[in-house]
Amino acid sequence: MIIDLKTAAKFLENNDDFLILTHAHPDGDTLGCGFALCEALKSCGKNAIVRCGDTAPEKYSYMGKLCEEDIEYENIIAVDVADAKLLGKEFEERFGGRVKLCIDHHGSNRLYAEQTLLDPSAAAACEIILEVIKELGVEVTKSIADCIFTGLSTDSGCFRYSNVTPRTLRMAAEMIESGADHSKINVIMFETKTRTYVALERLALESMKMFLDDRCAFITITRDMFRESGSDESEVDAIAAIPRQIEGVSVGVTMREKPDGTFKVSMRTHEGVDASAICAMLGGGGHPRAAGCTVDGDAQNARNLVVSCIEKYFKEELNS
Ligand code: 5GP
Ligand code: MN
After folding, report:
1. pLDDT tens profile 94-148
2. Residues 155 and 298 reside in one and the same domain
3. Domain check: are 166 and 205 in the same one?
4. Rounded to the nearest whole angstrom, what is the distance from the C-alpha of residue 288 to the centroid of ligand 2?
């Protein structure tokens, strides 16, 4: 059931113990949502913890610590999680059917939770979390501001993407007024690269292939490339932005091999190409300009399948 802001705030006010879940392979938005909401609930005298099916990359540690103990509270909240399967295999099995409140900004949200507070016009789920925090009457502390700013900045590519609205920028300004360390956060998120990341980026660029009259650029990252570079999946997010940056490319795809041999697809598009619609053909989803899905098969078959879906989308667009 879709609910409004007031109903979501009432649910939080009327209950005491909350287990907040982020999506697996956590990013700045889902962690920012989790830690900001957790602090806000605690300041209302409630019990709250944040958990994730994966560990969080060290660069996000200034926002807070995930609870690593196996603690369960009955009121399960998922933040920035469009589909229960994005909780990761173990957490999906354990918690996926029992989420009481989902706070999210993906138009493709599967409405798997009992109640869903959804705003696809939000550049980051952190925009919605900030509204919830204000509705609860909680003061925005410096640590909450750091979390919310991180979500706003990371999900908008440092305020560059088309998902940015006046509200995003107003909220970012407000967070700076509340003490967010904006430049420090942006340096960590956008101006700092590990050596292992740079080694992986080089291999990723070498793997790039062009398809569909050079309108599609495709990067494939294999397990061997992770081994050779010393990098791992926690470092791949920044690579997903690269193929779309090539002049003339309207669909950039980065596909990485998971330990189980499946391939995780990260698709980024320019205006006029709906990444979420293309990924939906393969059981995934996301936003109009950034979406994802998982595909089986060896690298070449998986790539051909994704390219064939993009081709199908182009043909349907031409005919419509
Ligand atoms: P990323 O490429 O950064 O992993 O994901 C881009 C966007 O697409 C994110 O908002 C993410 O939640 C969404 N997304 C990625 N993979 C999937 C998927 O398999 N299913 C759904 N529904 N959304 C996905
Ligand atoms: Mn998000």
Report:
1. 999 999 999 999 999 999 999 999 999 999 999 999 999 999 999 999 999 999 9
2. no
3. no
4. 13
Which protein residue's CA is at the shortest distance from atom 20 of ligand 1?
284
pTM above 0.85, yes or no: yes
Range of the domain at 285: 195-319
Same domain membership, residue 123 and residue 159: yes
Expressed in angstroms and rounded, the spacing between residue 108 Cα and the centre of ligand 1 is: 10
Domains: count for the chain: 2
Cα distance between residue 124 and residue 152, in whole Å: 5
Q: Is the shortest distance between the CB of 105 and ligand 1 below 6 Å? A: no
Ligand 1 atom closest to the Cα of residue 237 is 3
Residue with tokens 């320019």, as numbered in its chain: 270
Same domain as 210, residue 91: no
Same domain, 97 and 216: no
Task: Note the pLDDT tens digit of each residue in 37-68.
Answer: 999 999 999 999 999 999 999 999 999 999 99
